[in-house]
Design a protein that fits this description.
Blueprint lengths: L3 E7 L6 H9 L6 E6 L6 H6 L4 E4 L6 H14 L4 E6 L2 E3 L3 H11 L3 E9 L8 H8 L3 E3 L2 E3 L7 E5 H7 L11 H11 L3 E12 L7 H16 L6 H19 L5 H19 L2 H13 L2
Parallel strand pairs: 1-2, 1-4, 2-3, 6-10
Antiparallel strand pairs: 4-9, 5-10, 6-9, 7-8, 8-10
Helix pairs in contact: 8-9, 8-10, 9-10
Length: about 290
């Protein structure tokens, strides 16, 4: 039986965290929970401390990637073999983890395995997750192979983490999961979704101009850092995004806002282009896992 830890990054999650932790408590597969709290100012930490968890409190909001890195490093120190990253606004079923572990045991060349993500009604798939599932390009041993799935519920093997490394800390909240998937594929692991396991992601997807600007910037950064592509081609792909993303968002926002988005992305691109040595160094570190 594999030794599994569940890492949950929390921030002002009192609305969800008790239900999330109770669902893990009822898991048919034994699991140790590591909570990394991003300096919540509500009752999240108090609620998490009422459970048999390892609780690590940050004195600042580190963001998703950095906080998960702390949890992963703790899990590595404690010799866990599998690492289940789970969002605070989710809950699992009794057999969720058991089924994930069973499938990863059978398919050790997979670095990341995801369950199905359902919307709060527990009947329909989460809309964004449905997009990732639809983009599966092959089926292997009943697993849907994908190039990306969001990190709301990832089961990772220790072997994958040791080869791929931790989350890239240039990303603060968005884009770090896509960058990690790019690196997992580079290091010759597969990424899959199993229909034998599921979670519920209790969220409402809402569009926000500010969020779209931030996510678009990190999408460009992710392109610059994609080690599956040549150093030169990444810059041309990034420039295409600067031009193409505003065109895409024009159907959601006014011309003025879209122009604002374009200018934000253009100047962000220039700043990245001016940091070629740092970008190159980061890419090499990802290739060599330094």
């Amino acid at each position: 039986m594999k030794k599994v830890c569940c890492i949950i990054v929390t921030y002002n999650g009192e609305k969800w965290i008790e239900k999330c932790l109770k669902s893990i408590q009822q898991s048919s597969y034994p699991i140790q929970v590591i909570v990394v709290d991003n300096y919540s100012n509500d009752n999240t930490l108090k609620i998490a401390s009422n459970f048999d968890n390892i609780v690590i409190q940050s004195n600042t909001n580190l963001g998703f990637g950095k906080a998960n890195n702390i949890g992963i490093q703790k899990g590595l120190e404690l010799d866990f073999e599998y690492f289940f990253l789970l969002n605070q606004d989710t809950f699992i079923y009794e057999d969720t983890i058991e089924n994930l572990v069973t499938e990863l045991d059978k398919n050790p060349h997979y670095g990341i395995l995801s369950p199905l993500h359902y919307s709060p009604n527990e009947k329909t798939l989460d809309a964004n997750f449905q997009t990732y599932l639809n983009r599966s390009f092959a089926t292997e041993n009943h697993l849907k192979k994908v190039s990306f799935v969001n990190a709301a519920a990832w089961l990772l093997s220790r072997q994958c983490i040791e080869k791929t490394g931790l989350f890239e800390e240039l990303f603060s909240h968005y884009g770090e999961d896509r960058n990690y998937c790019d690196r997992v594929l580079y290091h010759r692991f597969s990424i899959g979704i199993t229909e034998k396991s599921k979670i519920v992601h209790d969220r409402t997807i809402q569009r926000s101009f500010r969020k779209d600007v931030v996510q678009s910037k990190y999408a460009i950064l992710g392109t610059f850092l994609n080690i599956n592509k040549s150093f030169t081609s990444c810059f041309f792909s990034g420039l295409k995004q600067v031009l193409g993303l505003p065109k895409y968002f024009l159907k959601f926002y006014s011309f003025i806002l879209t122009l604002n988005l374009f200018l934000n992305l253009f100047f962000y691109y220039i700043r990245l282009f001016a940091s070629l040595s740092k970008i190159r160094k980061t890419r090499m570190a990802h290739k060599n896992n330094e």
